[in-house]
Design brief:
Bound molecules: zinc ion
Number of strands of chain B: 11
Distance between the termini of chain B: 59 Å
Oligomer: heterodimer
Structural class of chain B: alpha/beta
Helix content of chain A: 40-55%
Largest sheet of chain A: 8 strands, mixed
Structural class of chain A: alpha/beta
Strand content of chain A: 15-25%
Distance between the termini of chain A: 59 Å
CATH architecture of the largest domain in chain A: Alpha-Beta Complex
Radius of gyration of chain B: 20 Å
Number of helices of chain A: 14
CATH superfamily of the largest domain in chain B: 2-enoyl-CoA Hydratase, Chain A, domain 1
Helix content of chain B: 25-40%
Number of domains of chain B: 2
Strand content of chain B: 15-25%
CATH superfamily of the largest domain in chain A: 2-enoyl-CoA Hydratase, Chain A, domain 1
Shape of chain A: globular
CATH class of the largest domain in chain B: Alpha Beta
Number of strands of chain A: 9
CATH class of the largest domain in chain A: Alpha Beta
CATH topology of the largest domain in chain A: 2-enoyl-CoA Hydratase, Chain A, domain 1
CATH architecture of the largest domain in chain B: Alpha-Beta Complex
Order of helices and strands of chain B: HHEEHHEEHEEHEHEEEHHEHH
Radius of gyration of chain A: 21 Å
Chain lengths: 319, 296
C-alpha cells in the first residue's frame, strides 16, 4: 500500500519493470534506456522524500509496513525475552517490555506496539496504552536500576488511550509517575521515536538521557487532527495544523526537543524496513557506548538538566 | 484536551456579559440563583445557595491561602516567545497580547513565597483566565523555578491547578513542560519537603499528567473536572454516554486517585494541618547522624 505522493514513483518503477520485461521478451538491448529511467527514478525519489511537507511526513510516520516496536525487538536486538504484566491490573498489549541484548550489551527494552495488520491493531489497541502499560514500563525501570541494565524505549503511539477504564484507573497519574520514575533512573536511558510520538503517552517513556527520532517520525503535543478540531474547529484542517505544530524530526532538533535524527533509507523506513532498522541499531550502539562511561550521578544530573532547560521565553521588557 | 471546552466557553455571548466582573449581580452556573457578587467573593467564590465552587482569580486564591501581608511575588519576569511562529485562526502573539491585556500578567501563572498559618510555603497558582490556563514554556519555567526555590528555602510547595492542558501554540515545547515541572520536584523530595497539590476546576491534559498529580497529598475541590482526556474526546472515542459524575472530584476520591475532596472554605485550615503533620516527623537519618557527629 503506497502513500498518495508515492504514486509517481510507483508509476516510474512499473515503467522500468515493463521495459526490462519487454527487453527480455524481445531479446533486445535496452540497458541504456533502463539506466536513464533508473536515474530519473533516483532523482524523483530524492526530490520527493527530501521535500516532504510536514503533513506528508505524518503519513510516512504512520505508514503501514513501517517497522514497529516488535520488529526492532526481534531483529535489531538479540535474545529478546518478553516480560509480561504490571503485577496489579493485567498485561497491556499496547506496550511490549522485556530483556534483550544490543550488540552484546544486556538492556531493558520498552516498546509501544502498533499492530502490523487490522487484527493485531485491535489486539494492540492501535498502540494506545492503558494505565497498565505504563505500570509495566515502571516495573521495567525498577528492574533496570536493580540490575544496572540500560533502558531503551521505542516510542510509537498516537497517544495514551482516552477511554472510561483508562480514566478510572488514573491515566494521568501513571503518566506523571512514569515521567518521574524514568527521570530518576541511575542507568543510561535512550528513547527513540520510531513512528508516532503522541503527546503525554509518548513522553511517559521519553525522559531519557538521549532522545533520538527517525527522519520521518513525528513527535507532537497533540495530533494534527485533534489540534485542527480545536483551533480551526475542523478536523479537515489537519494539514494546516501539522505545518503549524512543527512536529518533524528537523523541527524538533531545532527546538532541542530531540538530540539526534536517525536517517532513514531513501524512500522511508516503510519501503526498506531492514535498512532502517540497521541504521537505528548503529545509532543505538554509538549512543550506548557514549553513555556507558557516565556515573549514576552524571546520568541523573545530565538528564535533569536536559529537561530542565527546555522551553523558549524571554525577560519581560521593562515598562 | 479539554481546551475545546474553553474555546467554546470563550466565544462572546450575552451570558458572559452578564457575568462580567463589572456586574453587581451574577447568576450561579449551577443552581441559577441570582447572587450579589460581593456575597460570592466574601464566601470564597462559593455559591451561598448551592455551594457550587465558582472559579477563583489567581490573586484571590493567593489571598485565601497566604497569611495577610506575607505574599511575595516571584513570577512575572518572563514572557512567552513564539518559537513556532504559530498561526491558526489567529497568530499566537496576538492571542498572547489579548490575554495579557485581559488578565494583567505575562502568562497563566502566579507564583510566590508566603506564610500559611505561619509555615513557610511557595504558592504556585494557575490562572485559567489566561488562555485556558494552558501550560507553555513560561508556565513550566515559573513552576520549575518556584519548586527549586521552595527546596532551597525550605518551603512547602502548594500548587493550585486549573488548566485545559498543554499550550498547543508551543507544540512539543509545551509537551516538554510536563517533564520539566516533574523533574524539578526531585529537588523538593531530596529536601524532604512536602508538596501539596490542590486540583480545581478544570484540571486536564498535560497538567494532570505531570506535576499536578504528583503531590505527596492531593486535594480536590468539590465538583471539579479532573481528567487526562476531556469528556468529549472520550465520548467520541467510545461512542457511549459517560456515567454521571465521571471525572469529577468525588468520583476520583472513590477511585482512590485523590486524598480528599475539600470545601474551599476549609482548604486553608486543611492544608495547614497537613503541613504541620508532615513536617513534624522523626528526624531524617542523615540529620541524626549529623547531630551525633556534632555531639562528639
Ligand atoms: Zn448556586
Amino acid at each position: 500500500m503506497s502513500l498518495p505522493f508515492e504514486k509517481p514513483i510507483e508509476d516510474l518503477e512499473a515503467k522500468i519493470r515493463d521495459m526490462r520485461a519487454y527487453a527480455a521478451e524481445q531479446e533486445i538491448d535496452l540497458a541504456s534506456e533502463v539506466e536513464a529511467l533508473q536515474d530519473r527514478l533516483d532523482r524523483l525519489k530524492r526530490d520527493t522524500y527530501e521535500n516532504l511537507t510536514r503533513w506528508q511526513r505524518v503519513q510516512v510516520a504512520r505508514a503501514a509496513g513501517r517497522p514497529t516496536g516488535l520488529d526492532y525487538l526481534q531483529r535489531t536486538f538479540d535474545d529478546f525475552t518478553e516480560l509480561h504484566g504490571d503485577r496489579t491490573l493485567g498485561d497491556d498489549p499496547a506496550v511490549v517490555t522485556g530483556l534483550a541484548r544490543l550488540a552484546g550489551t544486556s538492556v531493558i527494552v520498552i516498546a509501544q506496539q502498533k499492530g502490523r495488520d487490522t487484527k493485531e491493531n485491535i489486539h494492540r489497541n492501535f498502540g494506545m496504552s492503558h494505565p497498565s502499560g505504563y505500570r509495566k514500563a515502571m516495573r521495567m525501570f525498577d528492574l533496570a536500576d536493580k540490575f544496572r541494565l540500560p533502558v531503551i524505549a521505542l516510542i510509537d503511539t498516537p497517544g495514551a488511550y482516552p477511554g472510561l477504564a483508562a480514566e478510572e484507573q488514573g491515566q494521568a497519574w501513571v503518566i506523571a509517575e512514569s515521567i518521574r520514575r524514568m527521570s530518576q533512573l541511575t542507568v543510561p536511558a535512550i528513547s527513540v521515536v520510531i513512528g508516532e510520538g503522541g503527546s503525554g503517552g509518548a513522553l511517559a517513556i521519553g525522559v531519557a538521557n538521549r532522545v533520538l527520532i527517525l527522519e520521518n517520525a513525528i513527535y507532537s503535543v497533540i495530533s494534527p487532527e485533534s489540534c485542527a478540531a480545536i483551533l480551526w474547529r475542523d478536523a479537515g484542517e489537519a494539514e494546516k495544523a501539522a505545518e503549524a505544530l512543527r512536529l518533524t524530526a528537523r523541527d524538533l532538533i531545532a527546538l532541542e526537543v530531540v538530540d539526534r535524527v536517525v536517517d532513514e533509507p531513501l524512500g522511508g523506513a516503510h519501503n526498506d524496513p531492514a535498512g532502517a532498522m540497521a541504521l537505528v541499531k548503529q545509532a543505538l550502539v554509538e549512543e550506548l557506548a557514549f553513555l556507558a562511561s557516565m556515573s549514576p550521578e552524571q546520568l541523573l544530573e545530565s538528564r535533569y538538566k536536559r529537561f530542565r532547560v527546555l522551553g523558549r521565553f524571554q525577560a519581560v521588557a521593562a515598562a | 484536551m479539554a481546551l475545546e471546552r474553553w474555546f467554546r466557553r470563550n466565544r462572546p455571548s450575552k451570558k458572559e456579559d452578564d457575568n462580567s466582573p463589572a456586574g453587581l449581580w451574577l447568576k450561579c452556573d449551577s443552581c441559577g440563583a441570582q447572587i450579589y457578587r460581593k456575597d460570592l467573593v466574601a464566601n470564597s467564590y462559593v455559591c451561598p445557595e448551592c455551594s457550587h465552587h465558582h472559579r477563583v482569580p489567581a490573586d484571590a486564591r493567593v489571598a485565601m491561602l497566604a497569611d495577610e501581608g506575607t505574599f511575595e511575588v516571584w513570577s512575572g519576569l518572563i514572557e512567552a516567545q513564539d518559537a513556532l511562529e504559530f498561526v491558526d485562526t489567529q497568530a499566537y502573539p496576538e492571542r498572547l497580547t489579548k490575554a495579557r491585556q485581559k488578565v494583567g500578567r505575562p502568562d497563566a501563572i502566579l507564583t510566590g513565597g508566603a506564610l500559611l498559618d505561619g509555615q513557610p510555603v511557595a504558592l504556585v497558582v494557575m490562572d485559567f483566565s489566561f488562555l485556558g490556563g494552558s501550560m507553555g514554556s513560561v508556565v513550566g519555567e515559573e513552576i520549575a523555578s518556584a519548586t527549586e526555590r521552595a527546596a532551597a528555602e525550605g518551603r512547602t510547595l502548594i500548587a493550585v491547578t486549573s488548566s485545559g492542558g498543554a499550550r498547543m501554540q508551543e507544540g512539543a515545547l509545551s509537551l516538554m513542560q510536563m517533564a520539566k515541572t516533574t523533574v524539578a520536584l526531585e529537588a523538593l523530595s531530596r529536601a524532604h519537603l512536602p508538596y501539596i497539590s490542590v486540583l480545581t476546576d478544570p484540571t486536564t491534559g498535560g497538567v494532570t499528567a505531570s506535576f499536578a498529580t504528583l503531590g505527596d497529598v492531593i486535594f480536590a475541590e468539590p465538583g471539579a473536572l479532573i481528567s487526562f482526556a476531556g469528556p468529549r474526546v472520550i465520548q467520541q472515542t467510545i461512542r457511549q454516554d459517560l456515567p454521571a459524575g465521571f471525572q469529577r472530584s468525588e468520583f476520583l476520591l472513590q477511585k482512590g486517585m485523590v486524598d480528599d475532596v475539600v470545601d474551599r472554605r476549609e482548604l486553608r485550615a486543611r492544608i495547614a494541618d497537613v503541613i504541620n503533620l508532615l513536617r513534624s516527623g522523626l528526624a531524617q537519618p542523615e540529620e541524626e547522624e549529623a547531630l551525633r557527629v556534632a555531639a562528639l
